[in-house]
Amino acid sequence: MNKIKILDESVSNIIAAGEVVENPASMIKELLENSLDAGADSVKIEVFNGGKDVKISDNGSGMEKNDMMLSIERHATSKISTKDDIFNLMTYGFRGEALASISSVSKMTISTKTKESNVGYKLTAYAGSIRNVEEISRNNGTEIEIRDLFYNTPARKKFLRKESTEYNKIRDIVLKEALVNYDTAFTLIFDDKPSIKTSGKGIENTILELFGKNVLKNLKKFEHGYLGSVEILRSSKDYIFTYVNKRYVKSNTIERAVLDGYYTKLMKGKYPFAVIFLNTDPKEIDVNVHPSKKIVKFSNDKIIYTQIKSAMDDYFYLEERREWQPNID
Ligand code: ADP
Ligand code: MG
To answer: Does the residue 193 lie in any domain?
Structure first.
């Protein structure tokens, strides 16, 4: 008899969920990015019980009934179809794994309606298997409700941190998405208490809503985003927000360029507040290296470094020749 067997899908989904749904924050990131990929300009996230119960609603494209039922299958995606598409990504999602993974470790309901359809649909799934599908009436868009995250994987559930820790991680993820998706209105609510609210009225207004007046007034625009003055230096690198093609990334190359750009302006142990939006040909980057898609590989690090560093040099060259005058009201 063979010793090797192909795992049952219900087992392989739970294993995959270990990578996609590390914690409530990473789950919320996936759901949020689905809403953004669906073209939503308003997204509301309500979180309860330390992130074990989550409801996220958007006003995006919605799904037809068949798509809704397929959406929780593994490798089911509307975003790519050929292998060339993987290297030409215009969307956050492409793996078709998030809903399959999340639903396999929770009780999920999806309520959705497209603008082309007169009726909406609601699907209920427990541990990834569909329990019920019904017709409902609702607005255009999608609402996904997760209940009892990790209820069928008690070992994973044990690794959840205390509520405040999970909430901090969630807030951090939502803030990073809200900052770059400044034309979308975000609402984040923890146990009925508002945490983040942006109105989707442009980058500067969003910075104001997320970080307050003092930060906005000490920021200046440069070619690839916003650079903070020495008035708002921080004690950690966490306030260097770097995005490549609207994706928040950790990149040593970009971070190095920013720090080198500030050079002598930084005191020891102090770091700048900066928002870097880099746009590059999707072919030049590989976001496929890590399931969380947080690490990117550039096909040419040196070009990226030089692009940012020289824009900063130009900026500071001009800066030193004029008084610090905020160009933002
Ligand atoms: P991926 O985002 O990689 O395609 P997911 O598992 O996250 O995979 O989602 C599967 C599919 O379900 C998506 O490709 C999309 O067609 C659909 N979908 C998921 N969330 C939404 C949403 N909020 N609005 C509309 N469609 C959605
Ligand atoms: Mg997705």
So the answer is: yes
CA 127 – CA 104 distance, rounded (Å)? 4
Residue 47 Cα to ligand 2 middle (Å): 19
Residues 180, 63 share a domain: yes
Q: Looking at the 3D structure of the chain, how many domains does it have?
A: 2
Of the bound ligands, which one is closest to the alpha carbon of residue 86? Answer: 1
Find the domain containing 310 and state its range.
Answer: 212-319
Measured from the Cβ of residue 148, the count of other Cβ atoms closer than 10 Å reads 16
Query: What residue spans of the chain are helical by DSSP H?
Result: 9-20, 24-37, 65-70, 83-86, 98-104, 154-158, 163-180, 203-211, 213-217, 252-262, 301-319
Question: Which residues have CB under 8 Å from 1's CB, separation 6+?
Answer: none
Strands (E), 16-152: 42-48, 53-58, 107-113, 120-126, 129-136, 141-147
Please say if the pLDDT value at position 66 is more than 80: yes
In degrees and rounded to multiples of 5, residue 277 shows phi and psi of: -110, 105
Instruction: Give the pLDDT confidence of 11-38 residue by residue, as tens digits.
Output: 888 887 777 788 999 999 999 999 999 9
Residue corresponding to tokens 């976001």: 287
Residue 72 CA: nearest ligand 1 atom is: 6
Chain centre distance of CA 76:
20
ipTM for the complex? Answer: 0.99
Residue with tokens 């969307």: 91
Distance CA 105, CA 15 (A): 10
Average pLDDT, integer, range 114-137: 97
Closest CA to 220 of 211, 212, 229: 229
- Name the residue of 37, 45, 106 to mutate for ligand 1: max ligand atoms within 8 A of Cβ: 37
Tokens of 317: 């060259």
